[in-house]
Amino acid sequence: MLTKKDTWILNLTGLIVSIVTIFVLWRQFYIFVDFTLLFGFLFTLSYNGQNNLRLLGSSLFIALILSLPGLWISNPIKPGFFYFLVYCFHYTYHRSGNLWHMNYRLLFEAAWNGILVLLVAVLFLLASAVLIFCASFLFSSQGSPFVFNLIYTNTGRLFQLFLTWLLLFIGIGVAQYHIKTLCQLRFILLMSMYYLLPILVIISSVVLILLWNIDLNPNAIITVFFELTLLGILFLNAYYQDGSDEIKRLVWLNWLLRGYKVLLLLMILIANYYAFRYVSIELSQLIYLTILLFLGWFYAYSAFFSDERAQNVVENGNKCFAIVFIAAFYFVIASPFNFTVNKEKAPLSLWHGADSIGKNGAQ
């Protein structure tokens, strides 16, 4: 449980990071922007009021390593998920103090807490934006448009960014102060997933049946199976980390779970088939698809073991492939090497797939 002093430390960190970020943008030192923001997020999201100097040093070191490729290459890849995985390992290292023995429960806690803290921070940012807009509108109606112009026009672009980052970090501080309450929400979400499993299995089965009767473009099919796969992986990890023996003793749930693991692998295989045959794949996308494929095989493999043994297989698979993903993706970011599979075909795009699904649903 953090104290008010810890909250002020987080807010002060956010203020310093926001000021430095705006300064380097103003001076056009763009290569330092990633370093500053990465440090801010790594420090504030992992903060627990203990070993602050070690957290400060590890946050600076990891932010430096992650931002180094920007010194010699400008890569259009948006590595958001890559950064999030690095944060999870950094969170685990800070909480355990052990670099080589990564506790999977801490990794899972890092992922869930990080998502919920960022969600609260974004909600805080949006609520603040509404209040600021109302205030600026009132000032404008009284013949003083300075505040409105400063925040909502291009003349105050740097101030807009400063305010955005500052409010976001304040939101992180608010969420971290109430982290125990958020943890209770996490357990509610995990518990509700047990009741969603039958629905997810039915939806996945129906999609597999309808796949052969619906004329969709490859991006739409890949998008559908990608979303179902993410939900499946989310559920599987929730199942193994809830710790409820009463639920795990349900025979029908265990057998349904085993069958769903095989179904999950089938969906991953179909998504990979359509991706490699019908669309062009960038190197970063190739890493996603390959890791997802091996992860699917691991999950299907765990279906043939008892519940405890299956949990170990899933946990070890997640940790190993997360490390491989981080190493491979960092190579993609740091390397000028550019490689595309099926370069002559239409590019793989989940956004285009979702747009195609929306248009078909509207017809």
From TrEMBL:
Residue ranges crossing the lipid bilayer per the database entry: 7-25, 31-48, 55-73, 115-138, 158-175, 187-214, 220-240, 252-274, 286-306, 318-339
Organism classification? Bacteria, Pseudomonadati, Pseudomonadota, Gammaproteobacteria, Legionellales
> Is the keyword Transmembrane helix assigned to this protein?
yes
Protein name as catalogued: Transmembrane protein
Q: What is the superkingdom listed in this entry's lineage?
A: Bacteria
The entry's keywords? Membrane, Transmembrane, Transmembrane helix
